[in-house]
């Protein structure tokens, strides 16, 4: 799958994208940490390790996810708008995101 096609598939619904088990485990963890951080536990870390991630990589995944969540909450809290050059077909509302992940 080409980079552009993959990026669009990931932006629209990563669960429908063609991914390796390793990539899917990483994204499942990142989504869970984003949507329901209180529910993340040792079993989630073990899933990443079972998918082939070493301790340093697990830490990187957690830190990058946490950083992006932090920056997004800062932007939301300050009313920062998206830049106008973002392609509309790649942007998903919060409601769309939650409905695809949760519901």
Structure explained in plain terms:
With 103 residues, the protein is mainly α. It has one domain: AhpD-like (Up-down Bundle), CATH 1.20.1290.10. Helices cover 65% and strands 0% of the residues. It has five helices and no strands. Helix 2 (21-35) packs across helix 4. The longest helix is centred in the middle third of the chain and has 24 residues, at 55-78. The radius of gyration is 15 Å and the shape is globular. It starts with a helix and ends with a helix. The mean pLDDT is 85.
How do you describe this structure in short?
This protein has one domain (3-101): AhpD-like (Up-down Bundle), CATH 1.20.1290.10. The protein is built from 5 helices and no strands. It has helices at residues 3-13, 21-35, 42-50, 55-78, 94-101.
- The first-to-last residue Cα distance is 27 Å
Q: Helicity, in percent? A: 55-70%
Our estimate of the beta-strand percent is under 5%
CATH class annotation: Mainly Alpha
Instruction: Please mark out the parts with pLDDT under 50 across 5 or more consecutive residues, or reply none.
Output: none
Order of helices and strands: HHHHH
Domain unit count: 1
Q: What CATH architecture label applies?
A: Up-down Bundle
- Number of extended strands: 0
> What is the CATH topology classification name?
AhpD-like
Specify the biggest β-sheet.
Answer: none
**Gyration radius over CA:** 15 Å
CATH superfamily: AhpD-like
Count of alpha and pi helical runs: 5
Q: What shape does the CA trace take?
A: globular
Q: Averaged pLDDT, please?
A: 85
Structural class: mainly alpha
